[in-house]
Amino acid sequence: MRLSRLNTGNRLTGGAFPLDRPGRLRRGALVCALLAALAGSALVLPGAARAQTAPPANQNTEALFEKTFGKKKKAEKPTTLDLPVKVEGREVGQVPAKVAPDPAETQVDLNRLALLLRDFVQAKVLSDLVAQAGPDGYAKLSALSLGGPAGGPRSGPSAAAISITVDPKELTLSVKVPPQLRAVRNLTVVNRANAASGYQVLEPADAAAYINLRTAQVFLAQPATDSGNYRQPLNIGLDGGGNIDGWSFEWEGQYQEQYSHHFMRGTTRLIRDFPEDAVRLQAGDLDYSITGIQTNRPLTGLSIARNYTLQPYRAIQPTGSRDFILDSPSTVEVLVNGRPTRVFREDAGPVNLSDFPGTSGTNDVQVRITDAYGQTRTIDFPFFFDSELLAEGVSEFNYTVGIPYTTGTDRLIYDRSRPTFSAYHRQGITDDLTLGASLQADKSQQVIGTEVLFVTGLGTIGINPGASLGASRGASVDLTYRDYTNDEQFYQQRTLTAQGSWRSGGYASLGTLDPRNTVSYDLSARYGQPLDEDLTATLSGRYQLVRDDNQIDGYSVDLGFRRRFGRHATLELTFSRARNTVTREADNSAYLAFRYTFGDGVQSAGFTMDTLSRQRELDWRYQDPWPTNSWNLGVDATNTTGTYQASGSVGYTMDRFEASVRHDYSQRLSTLDGPLQNDERTTLNFATGLVFADGHVGVTRPVTNSFALVVPHPRIADEEIGVDPVTGHYLSSSDWLGPPVVPNISAYLVRPLLLDVPDAPMGYDIGNDRPAIVPGNHTGTLVPIGTDATVSLDGVLLDPEGRPVPLAAGILHRTDGKGVKAANAKDPKAGQEVQFFTNRKGRFRVEGVRPGEWQMQLTGVPHKPIPVTVPAEAEGMFPLGTLKLEALPGQTINLSPTKPASTSSGP
C-alpha cells in the first residue's frame, strides 16, 4: 500500500512502509527509514540540499501554489472594519480601515487618521500624510512616506519618522511619534485661563441701575463777613449709571444752593460694549483716551475705541516665549529673576513656553529641565517687558468726533462752532516694534503725531515726532528711553530712564492759539540703584534750554535715599539744587520724610520737612482693618513761614453709607507785620447709594461701577445674611434696610462671593453659597440665597424581621410634583431627589428636605417604597421614628448586619 499522508497536513513524496495495524507504521520499519534518511543526507552537499528543498528564487508564492495544487490561489478580499488607534500605547479613537492578510497591505482612511492625530503630530506632517491619500481617501501603509522632521521622505536611516503599524492579533493600529515630530504643546507660565473656573457664574440682571448721593456742608466758627451766616451753601453731588439689555449709561448732576439755578446737569453718556472684540462705542459727553502729544479737550459727540479693560485677562503686551524639545518625559521648572514661578511635568516633544510674569524692564528667565534619570539641563535667556509695547498683531485705537464744551457755574456750555476730531491708532508690528499715528483737528488747528517704540539690547526707545498746522505752525520731537534690570541679587536691580523733548517756537497743542514756547529743549534723566537690601539711592537731573533772552537756562539735580527699618519704618532723604529760569536764582534744599507703622498696621505716624518751602508737617492716622463698620481717624499739624494749620477728621464706613466730619483751623499773617487772621471751619460729608435690579431694590454705600444684590428666600428673609466675611466682619450684611449689597465690583472681572447665614435653622439648605459674577459695565446681578428646603428628617430603618439596616444608601423621591428647583442648581433633579445613608445601627438623617409628599427607596434593594409626609409647617429637625422595610411579592430581603444592603431572590 502506498502511504500518501502521515497525519493530517504532512505530505510524503514517496516510499512504501508495511503497516503494523491499519493507520500505523511498524515501529522497526520507521526507525530504519529514519536512519537511512540521515545517512543519505550526510552524503549530499548542503548547497545541493537547499537547492532541492527551497523554491527557485524567481518563483513567487502564487506560482508555487499553482504548481503544487494545479490551480491559482484565490485572492483574499480585505476586511473593512474600524481599527482602534493607539498613540504611544494610549487609545485615541477608531479609524476606518481595509485590513488585508498582509498587515503592510492594509489601507486606512488618512483623513480620519489625521483628525485623531491632530493633538499629537505637527500640522505639517499631517498635511503631508493626508496628501498621500487616494481618490477614496485611503492609502496602503506600505506606500506611505512617514519620515523627515519636516514631514517629507526620510533622508537616511537615522532620520526621525512616524511609525504606523497594524497588530494582526489585537487588530489595532499603533502609532509612534518621535519627539521632534510631535505637536507643539503651549505652556503658559502665568495662567490666564478663565478665572471663573470652578464657580457657578450668575448672569447680570436684564435691567439694573444705581444712584449715588454725596453731600458736603460747611460751618464756619465765625459768621461770613457779608452774609452773617455760620452755615455755608449746601452742595449735593449726584451720579449714577445702569445697564439695560447690554446698553449702559452714566450721568452726573449737582445741587448748588448758592446759584439761582440750583440743579446742574453734569456729563451724560450712552455706552455699548462688545467684549469679544474689546470695542466700546460712546455717545454723549465723552470719556475718551489720548496718546503721545495729544491733549484731552472735553467733547460731546461719538466715539469708538478699542478698550482692553473689556478683556482684563488678556495679555496685550509681549509676554515672551521660548521653544525647546523634550527628548523624554521631564519636569520643567521656570524661574524668573531667581524666583521659582511654575513647575510643569510633560511628556516628550516640542514645547512652547510663554507668558512670563516679568516686571518692567529686563528679566532673567531660567528653565531647568530634569528627565526621568535625574539629568538636568538649563536654558537661560533674558525677557524684556514694557507696558507701552503691544504684542505682534495687537492694535489699539480711539476715533472721536464732537463739539467742545466747558463747565460753567451752573451749566455745561457747548461751542457748536468748533467741531473737533481726535484719533489715534497703535499697532504691534512685532513683539519688539510698535508703531502709531495720531491726529487732532478743528477748523483752525491740526496737530499730527507719530510714534515709533522699539526694544533694543539696551532698553526701550521711543520716538514721537509731531507737527501743528493751521493757526500756529511748528514742530516737536519727544524721545524716551527706559531700561529696568531685575535680578535675584539686589545690586543688579537698577533702573535708568531718560526723556528729551524739543518744541519750535510756533508749535501749539490743540486749543492753544497763541503758544509761548520759551523752553526749546527739555532734557531729564533718572538712575536708581539699591545699595543694600534695605537702602536705595536715586540720582536725577533736568536741564531746560530757553530761547527767551530775558530768561536763563534752568536745571535741577536731586540725590535721594530711601531706607527701610524692618517692616515698620521708612526714611526718605533728598538733597536738591535747582536754578529757576525766570528768577535766575539757584537754591539748595533738603526734603526729609519719616513714617512709622505700629505693630498691627492700623496706626501710623509721620513727619516731613522741606527746607525750600520752609514747611514742617506732623500727622497721625488710624484705619480699622475691616472693610465696613469701620472707623478712620486723622490728625495733621503744619507750620509754614507765617502760617499755622491744624486739622482733625473722623470717618465711619458702613455697608449702607459713608460719613465723616473734618475740622480745620488755620492762622496766618495778613502782612509781614500785620495781625494774625484766623480761619476755623467744620465740614460734614455723607454719601449713600440706591440700587435697582429686575424689580429688587437695595440701599448701599456709593457704587463704583457694578453691584451685586443678594435676594434671600422668604424662609430666611428675617435671618442675618453676610457677604465675604473678613476678620469677623462682613463686607455687607442684611439689616432693617434690606438685604446685602456689594457695591465695589469692577466691570468684566470675575468676582467670587462667599455667602453666610450664621443663624440658619439646623439642616437648612442655603443653596449655592459660593457663586461668582462676571459683570458688564454698570450692571447689577441678583444673587439668590436659600431655598424652601428647611427640614431635616431623622429616623431608624429596620428590615422585615425588625433588625437595623446597616450602611445602606438610598434616595428620597418627591412624589407630589410640587418640587422647586434649588437656587442656582444646574441639576434638573435638584429639589426632587435627596440622597441619604444609614449608619451601622440603621439610623439615617436626610437634610435639605422641603415640605410635601416623598418616598424612600434603598439603592439596589427591591422593596416597597416607604411613603414620607413632611407637613407644610415643619421646619428644622422632623423625627420619623422607626421605619420598616416591606418586601415585594415574590422577593426576600436579605441584609447582612456588617455589610451594605444586598438582595437575594425568593424561591
From TrEMBL:
GO CC annotations on file: cell outer membrane
Pfam families per the UniProt record, alphabetical: Usher (PF00577)
Record-level GO BP terms: pilus assembly
GO molecular function, a single term: fimbrial usher porin activity
Gene3D superfamilies to which the protein is assigned, alphabetical: 2.60.40.3110
InterPro entries tied to this protein: Fimb_usher (IPR000015)
PANTHER family linked to this entry: OUTER MEMBRANE USHER PROTEIN (PTHR30451), SLR0019 PROTEIN (PTHR30451:SF5)
UniProt-recorded name of the protein: Outer membrane usher protein
Species whose genome carries this gene: Nitrospirillum amazonense
Upper classification of the organism: Bacteria, Pseudomonadati, Pseudomonadota, Alphaproteobacteria, Rhodospirillales
